[in-house]
Amino acid sequence: MFKARSSVVCGRVQPRPTVNRSVAATRTFTSSAPRNKQRLVILGSGWGGYEILRAIDKKRWNVTMVSPTNAFNFTPLLASCAVGTLEFRCAVEPVRRYSPQVKCYQAWCDTIDFKQKTLRCMPATPPVECERTTSASLTETSTTETQHPGTDTGFTLRYDKLVIAVGAYSQTFNVPGVKEHAHFLKDVRDARAIRTRIIECFEQANQPTLSDIQRRNLLNFCIVGGGPTGVEFSAELHDLLHAEIERHYPALARMAKITLYDVAPNILGNFDKSLGVYAEDKFRRDGISIKTRHHVERVEKDRMFVKEQGEVPFGLLVWSTGLAPNPLIQSIDSLEKHEKTQSLFTDQNLNVIRKEGHVDPDIWAIGDAANIKGQLLPATAQVANQKAKYLAQKLNKIVKDQEHTKAFEFHNKGSLAYLGDWKAIYDRSSAENVKTKESGRLAWLLWRSAYFTMTLSVRNKILVPTYCTRFLNWIFGRDLTRF
């Protein structure tokens, strides 16, 4: 049995809810499934887990999803949401769109017992104090077991087949103070917090009691991480500063500054070198400072300490330096894992590999939590989504007792990054067939059209292009209210 040490959401350690022992009671939850249905449990509602949830045959499988959030986050649009270019609902899809066909639990999976085929889960919702009730016996086919007397509010799930798609969390490299004082950009809650903080910085700087030095410190926006997330947020923030902020806070807009930090010699290291140079040149023309080969040593409230620069005051710090392993994945020691990333190794059919060397035919791992052994693929939404589509097809054949022996193949559709002012870069130079790269307005059109086609619901297919063509922004401007 394997136990995760703590739960982390978007780089922040989440304390477990306390339980009033005097009112803790034995409570049984029964969720009897038809005997002819196998129990499929999906861990995670990200690019991997949510795609399987959409495509799985829910009439043949008894499907249960366990995720600490009750929504899928369309991560490429979060930077736009964080500055008001898009509204938050454009970047989320509710998991319960598929209920009651699917049982959904907003919870963390803390323990996997591979021998007994059970999961120990902890609710991700606030605790509820309950009166002691008489418990009913579990049926033999029950999917859900209950807590035991004297324990916390955890519960146990049984599975026949398991998909591990728990993703990864923000990498902090153990830099002191990052979790406490930096913002991450992993889900809509992060985007909302960043948007609130940006407006708060300008309202604070607008107070007549502050000096110009204090105002400049408040309006110094620092982004650590020169990958696509950091670059796109820098670009979206630049658009905001030179549109609505310049119009409504003209004196303060001239004091605002955006600085992008990275330890690497160049930003966008995974892109073609010429595209990275194009992005750097554009940022410098736009007044965005790029500080490569810079190392953050520690972060305190309203300031960070950079080895090559010294003390750097800031009003907002956004941290996007890569991925850290999920605590659940870290806790597993009976499966083969990548030595550096700690992600689970799978075979070409996405089944996990036991340390003894054989694959487990009932467990699959996809997304940022997994890597195909001998094949290094980037930890991107594109890879997770393609793996999920492949696995959904495989599971739908398994439930019909049909063979599905074809191995997974990744088809590189290219990488995109927005650079501001309706310009972007598109890199498909490493694709196996048609190799191309674009920059400027044409790449921006590719960027927007790609996200339009990838959005899942009809509602968001309408909302996203409406906002992304800036039709509403042209008429009304971005919303600068703080609430």
From TrEMBL:
This is FAD/NAD(P)-binding domain-containing protein. Gene3D superfamilies: 3.50.50.100. Residues 133-146 have a biased composition (Low complexity). Keywords: FAD, Flavoprotein, NAD, Oxidoreductase. GO terms for molecular function: NADH dehydrogenase activity. The keyword Oxidoreductase applies. It comes from Rhizopogon vinicolor AM-OR11-026. InterPro entries: FAD/NAD-bd_sf, FAD/NAD-binding_dom, NDH-2, NDH2-like_C. Residues 39-387 form the FAD/NAD(P)-binding domain. GO terms for cellular component: mitochondrion. It holds the Pfam family NDH2_C. Residues 132-151 are annotated as: Disordered. The keyword Transmembrane does not apply. Residues 413-479 form the External alternative NADH-ubiquinone oxidoreductase-like C-terminal domain. Belongs to the NADH dehydrogenase family.
